[in-house]
Amino acid sequence: xxxxxxxxxxxxxxxxxxxxxxxxxxxxxxxxxxxxxxxxxxxxxxxxxxxxxxxxxxxxxxxxxxxxxxxxxxxxxxxxxxxxxxxxxxxxxxxxxxxxxxxxxxxxxxxxxxxxxxxxxxxxxxxxxxxxxxxxxxxxxxxxxxxxxxxxxxxxxxxxxxxxxxx
Length: 167
Prior knowledge:
The chain is mostly beta strands. The protein has one domain: Sandwich (Immunoglobulin-like). The chain has one helix and twelve strands. It has one helix at residues 8-23; strands spanning 34-41, 44-46, 50-59, 64-66, 79-82, 88-90, 99-101, 111-114, 117-126, 133-143, 145-146, 155-166. The radius of gyration is 21 Å and the shape is elongated.
């Protein structure tokens, strides 16, 4: 049995197809360019007490996510929101400072983005009348990831955050 070497045209076609899938906004299969997690600090509070939910956004090298307030209105912003939970009051979401980058293939103007590891904070208060126990608060993280040549479909991650209320 004779093995055939792939021709240059076959290899070229495969390379062009892979490059096109990335250029037209398809993330290579299995690539997770953003990881999200959250925790309450402190995780145990008395009824009537305060805490903060820290939402961690970790973006791998070579990628970015749009800031909460991008300069370009056509870009999808990063948005962290809470799911209303009886007995808890959520404060205004506090986003990290954005980084300015240039990506001429995406926009002619500089972009406001998040790179690497970032923390978004949500202040919370347990009402004085909330019963002691374990509560699972929920936050939703919406983001759009991009590299320097393409942006990918937006994603939403839902995260459960345990909080213990004491008397």
